[in-house]
Design goal:
23% strand, two-stranded antiparallel sheet, 23% helix, D-Maltodextrin-Binding Protein, domain 2
């Protein structure tokens, strides 16, 4: 998503893009911090002991940050769905999301 937009911007396919990226990763017209938060559906049951994740596809900054943090805490987790669409309306899993 942001990675694809960045590639298209660099290739000259588009003139401007709103992308997410790590701090201090190059020039930008405007920047602002986003805090990563964990979100879940109202009916999500975490009693299985394994955190089931619904994530955006590769190239998503939220995905990269979420997986990096999960490696730090070393708890059991697995990816149950990769999608570009919101999938937290039911009991499928949890996701990470930004908050400005």
């Amino acid at each position: 998503m942001s990675l694809e937009l960045r590639q298209r911007l660099d290739a000259g396919d588009i003139d401007i893009a709103l992308i997410k990226r790590e701090p201090d990763s190059g020039p930008a017209w405007a920047t602002w911090p986003e805090r990563l938060v964990w979100v879940k559906g109202v009916d999500f049951d975490s009693s299985s002991g394994v955190l089931q994740l619904t994530l955006f596809p590769q190239g998503c900054l939220y995905r990269q940050r979420a997986i990096r943090e999960l490696h730090v805490v070393q708890g059991p987790w697995r990816v149950v769905l990769v999608s570009r669409e919101g999938v937290l309306s039911g009991e499928l899993g949890v996701d990470s999301n930004g908050q400005v």
